[in-house]
Amino acid sequence: MPIAHAALEPIEGRDEPFIIGQGIGPVGRWLRLFLGVYFLIFLVLNPLYLHPLSPRALPAFALTVGGYFLLLVALHFIVFFLISGPILSKLNPWAGTAVFVGIPTVPALLGLYPQTVQVAFGFYVGISLVLLFFMRYGGCEVVAIPSLLLKRRFPIYCPYNAIDAIERAMTPDKGWARQRLLTIFSLAIVIFVGGYFIVVASNDLLGQYGVVVRIDHRWSLLLLVPCAQLAAFAWKHYEAEHSLFAPQVRRYGLGAVILALTIVAFLFEGVGITGDVIWVVAMGLGALVVLFQVGTRLARRQRHSRKPA
Question: What is the pTM of this model?
């Protein structure tokens, strides 16, 4: 089956609920829509009301941001068009992540982007998140526009896929029915903690209107309950199938790992172990996977070329 799909067609007929980095569940869809709309509203309100610019500076600022936005659209479209065949369709999804997320992250970490570029990228991401909702696509938001225009889909990882992995793992099936009460409790915890920290993420915006939300990261410890449940399911399937790469082992195991990392990120944010740091480490490990895959293919090609005719 080819990896590319029509940009507006949901993926069906899978043994798993969906493929991380390509498919999407209802929670992931609606959360992307919420975040996309939130980003766009914030970016519009910020120069108008929250940190208002002077009437003279506002038109020039808007034109500059608009120009950078169009440049971002063009750059992502060109790169997507050029690498979709040789890279995105043939290599591990982390290859696309390295190109579309890893490379732009380096200048961002060095603080090289001016404010207008940051705002333009914010608009680009916000619009892309809204598009993902309508496209029913769970890939990286920065490729939503080129994916839609070129009608091609490829699995590409981004931080929002952590939400998809948790949703996929927490989607009830026959195994969950035997632990109905614990399952309901675990789902309630994930919804509560997720909602709490979404409000926390809005703290800067709410603070402009005098609404102060006190942040207590210890609430993330509640995630230990669903984390332990997913880990138990993963271990159960591992004992039955004796493979770390069995679909159900990967499904529950990945969900448990992400919940555990979420707890770590919230509890140890004060000492620098943030979600961004964990994501950078994940991209580094993903890059190693891609390098290993490329090296294996090159070695295999050399062995074939040395065989006598």
Answer: 0.83
